[in-house]
Structures are given as C-alpha cells and as structure tokens.
Predict the 3D structure of the following.
Amino acid sequence: MGPPDAAGVVELGYSIAADWRGRGLGSELVAGLVQQAAATGMVHQLVAHTPPENITSQKVLLRNGFTSVGTDVNSRLRFERTVEPAVLPSRE
C-alpha cells in the first residue's frame, strides 16, 4: 500500500481473483510479501485489514504470523505482524 512510514510500518493489501481462490495462492502471496518486506531492511511492522466476514483472508494472515489486534474506525479487523529484517551475507 506504499513505502514504510518513519517507524517502518507498512500496510499490506492483496486480492486473489475469484477463479484462483482456494488454491493456497493467498497464503503464498502474503508469505512472499512478508519475505520481501524483511529483505528491504526498512520494514519493522506489517499491518493488514479485512472485513469481519472475510474468514479466508483472516486465515491467510494468521497462517503468516499476523495477530488480530482489534478493529479500526471502519469496523474492519486489524492484523499486525513484526518483521525481523533479513540478515544479509557479509561481502568479505
């Protein structure tokens, strides 16, 4: 949803076309986004929102280490996940 803010927080957004749902692609996509966020070294926390009725999206986030932390002002569920920056190999 954009670059990290000054605190290293990024909001994650994703969607899977209806014809492709139920194949594990959402979980794989979110896992890749988490990995990419860690690889930048600039992201410290990911945030995602989903409507309460979107159980599938909630499961995708939970499978990828997100924790439900309540609701936002629009009554969407808020999920958060800490990101550990990837350790890059030394260039010695």
Observations:
- Helices lie at 25-40, 55-63.
- The chain has one domain: 9-16+23-82.
